[in-house]
Structure formats: structure tokens, C-alpha cells
Amino acid sequence: MQHYDYIFTGSGLSALMTVYEMILSGKFNDKTILLLDENPKKSNDRTWCFWDDGDLMEPIISKKWNSALFADKNFRRNLDLKPYQYKMIEGLDFYNQVFDLISKHSTIRFVNQKVIYFSALENHCVVKTETESYTCNQIFNSIFNPDLVKNQSKYPFLHQHFIGWFIKSKEAVFNPDSATFMDFSVEQKGNTRFMYVLPTSKTEALLEYTLFSKDLLSKDEYENEIQKYIQKLGITEYEIIKKEQGNIPMTCYPFWKHNSKNILNIGSAGGWTKASTGFTFANTIKKSKALVQFLLKETDLRKFHKSDKFWFYDLLLLDILDKKNELGSTIFSSMFEKGNTTVIFKFLDEETSFWEDLHVIWKCPTLPFVKALFLRLFK
Q: Which string of b and e fits 63-74 if b means at least 16 CB within 10 Å?
């Protein structure tokens, strides 16, 4: 049975980014690391987007936008994103960059196997796959267990779920310099529903029909809404280049309570996804950098997590959307209609001062949040 210093059960964004940061730090060259995943990470299976005011992951950025559109049924606002840019990374480009770096380190190994069990014993940890068993000093787990959230009622559990089409149209209808961040002008049907559009040329774009809600839809319902939106744009002829589908957990459930001295839950399994928006990439980079610095000083993984004000803000929003899911459009529209774009994105990136927080919060409808706060305090 092979022994490692660290084993990553699941090798998605959080695991790969943490190993990437470990390598860049130069402080883990004497550590043996094993990454386990049933997905070989050799296909372009997803895209990640984030806003940034620097050169984060610059070599693999596939597209940038300097402006973005926010819309609902009552208004449309073109957002100047400066000093930020909205950026897109394709999954395969990210995998290739990380695995190219990993391949240069003999102490790091990736094994394409499905994890079926892991546990911390008295002096070590054990991980079992469908074919082999391994031991290690510490485990970083990114395999999401939805039952932890479903089997409780204190913390809401919503999904950011979507289907996206990459299309090429006959008509030149897209503005390749502007992304559509949220378009709530689509029929809400009692939910929080919007279109998300990432144009890469005047005739090419990714269009995603997205919901923040409890229940998933049939495949046909997502795709029918995409077709309606395409027609609304004035497109009469197009071809579908590729499709993608996703389901991101949105919850403030305290996953960190399941951490132990030698097992740390990371990624969505550790609450690293931004609960109020589902944005993952930038948050994961921050968390992975923080984790690497933590490992240089501490050995007890229970000490890694720290709750903050943004966790509580997200919790109140999810409390509202859990009970009145149709309010999503109203809340986001109130923020973006007249709010300061830079402060909003800074707020969503969890980098604002309390005074800046108030500038965003005061734009939102007061009554739902007061009710949510009251109910939360006595829950």
C-alpha cells in the first residue's frame, strides 16, 4: 500500500489549484502528493469566468470583456467594468497548464481512479478507490456530498443550474466587446431566471439559460428558452458548436464542521463556492493560496476555516430566495440599476469595507432582508 504526504480525493478546480499553488511556492518539493479522480481531465468540459483587475492566469485567458450588460424587463444598463475586466478560461487550457507543471515534479502523481471511501485513523489516513488503497498523512477532499445539506433544514440549499449553447449565427448580432452578465428580461416563472451571454465574435457566443432555484428543469425546458432568446436576438440561422451543462451548489451550510485534524474539505465540498452567486474560480484561487500559506505554519486542518461577514450576507440572500425565489430579479436589479459597478464587483469579490458594504446593501429592497435577519436570529 503506497503512502503519501497528501492525497486529494477528487481533482477538480480546488484540488488542481491548490497543488498548482504548492508547486509555485517551492516549499513542498519534499512532499509526496497523490491526486485521484475518475475524470481524466483531458476534455474541454467547462468554462470558468471571473472579473479581475490584474493579470491573473493571463497565459490561458481565452477572451476578455471591458463592459457588460445587465438587464431586466424594465431597464438595460451597460456596465463599464474598469478597473476590472471580465475574463474567460476554457477548462482544457487550465488542465493542460496545471498538468504540464505537475509532470515536471516526480513527487506528484495523478491517478485516474474513482474514490469510494476515505477516513482518518489514529496515526494516518486511508483512501480506497475501486481498484486500490492508499495511505497518507492528510486528505484534501473535494467530492461533494449533497446528503450533508439535504438532511438538515437550518441552511437553505439552492442550485445554480444551467445549460449553455455555443452557437455560430448567420447574422452579426453580438457585441464581442461586451458580455451579458445577467438578463432577467426572460420570463421568471416564479424563480430567479436569467440569460448569460459571452460573445467571442459578432457571430459567435455562449448562451446559458441559468436559474438560482431549488429544483432542476427538464433538458427541453432549458433548451426551449435558449431557442426563444436566440429568436429574440434576431437570429434566423445558426449552428450549435458545443453544449455544456452545469449544476453548482448554493448554500451556506457549515461544511467546515466536518473537517478534522487531518481531513479538510475543499472546493464546493468545503463551501468554497460563493454561495450567493455560484462564482467559483476567483474564490478558489484565493482559498487555495490561503491554504498553501496555512500549511506552511499549521498542521491541524480544523484551524483553517474562518467565518466572515460575507458568509452571513450570503446566508440572508439564500434565506430570501429559499422562501421567495421570485425575488431574485428584484434584488439583483436594485443593486445594478444605479449602483456603483466597481463597488458591486468588489463586494461580490468579498473585498469591500463595511462602509462599502452598506453602499451596496442600501440599494437592495429593505423589507425582505429585515425579515430574513429577524428569522435567522431566532432560527
A: bebebbbbbbee
- Of the CA atoms within 13 Å of residue 315, those in its CB half-sphere come to 18
Q: Return per-residue pLDDT of the chain as tens, 379 residues.
A: 899 999 999 999 999 999 999 999 999 999 999 999 999 999 998 999 999 999 989 999 999 999 999 999 999 999 999 999 999 999 999 999 999 999 999 999 999 999 999 999 988 999 999 999 999 999 999 999 999 999 999 999 999 999 999 999 999 999 999 999 999 999 999 999 999 999 999 999 999 999 999 999 999 999 999 999 999 999 999 999 999 999 999 999 999 999 999 999 999 999 999 999 988 899 999 999 999 999 999 999 999 998 899 999 999 999 999 999 999 999 999 999 999 999 999 999 999 999 999 999 999 999 999 999 999 988 6
Q: Give dist(CA 27, CA 228) in Å, integer.
A: 53
Three-state secondary structure call for residue 190: coil
- Strand residue runs (E) in 14-84: 33-36, 47-52, 61-65, 67-71, 76-80
- Whether pTM exceeds 0.70: yes
Phi and psi, residue 43, nearest 5°: -130, 160
Q: Which three cell numbers stand for residue 292?
A: 498553501
Q: State the Cα–Cα distance between residues 75 and 330, nearest whole angstrom.
A: 12
Who's near 316: CB < 8 A, 6+ residues apart? 369, 372, 373, 376
Options 3.40.50.720, 3.40.50.300, 3.30.9.10, 3.10.50.30; CATH for 157-250 is 3.30.9.10
* Rounded-to-10 torsion of CA 343, 344, 350, 354: 60
Phi and psi, residue 287, nearest 5°: -65, -40
Domain 2-61+91-151+254-303 class in CATH: alpha beta
C-alpha to C-alpha distance for 226 and 205, rounded to whole angstroms: 12
DSSP single-letter state for residue 106 = T
Distance CA 291, CA 107 (A): 20
| CA atoms of 315 and 373, how far apart (whole Å) | 9
Distance of alpha carbon 343 from its chain centroid, rounded? 20
The SS3 of residue 125 is strand
